[in-house]
Design goal:
The protein is α/β, with parallel strands linked by helices. The chain is built from five helices and six strands; from the N terminus they run E-H-H-E-E-E-E-E-H-H-H. The protein has a single domain, classed as Mannitol-specific EII, Chain A, CATH 3.40.930.10. Helix content is 43%, strand content 22%.
Amino acid sequence: MRVCDLLDHNNVFPELEVTSKPELISTLVDTLNHHVSEEITERAKEAVLNREDIMSTGVGRGLAIPHGKSTGLDRSYAAFARLTSPIEYGAIDGEPVNMVFLLVGPEAQNSLHIKMLSRVSRLLNNQAFREKLESADSADAILEAFRNEEEQFIKV
């Protein structure tokens, strides 16, 4: 499974306006409503927020990768947002966050979840790729950037 296969126009936000971490997570997890019931979406949201309570997923340099595993999900889902204004996130470097990749998956698929998190982290830790995402002017451009980057990543 490729990261870019989890993204589409319903879950990519080139200019998301939120003011807090809970609002951000809620907005991104709510994109699951296109695929699963509201009850399952709420469980996924709770899983991601509980994960944040354990330790912030703000990994530094303006990036956060909130994630969680939940019952009721049959596969992994994702969302990506570039924020119009950075928000306080409790990141490890103390800096606000302006780029976020959400990943949620089935509780029973721990190894796949870890593999996908690793791939997302590897992609987004590439400074040149983050710069492409920052300069992308639309959801289409963001989706294309993920596809192109992952094609290069898979070839390596």
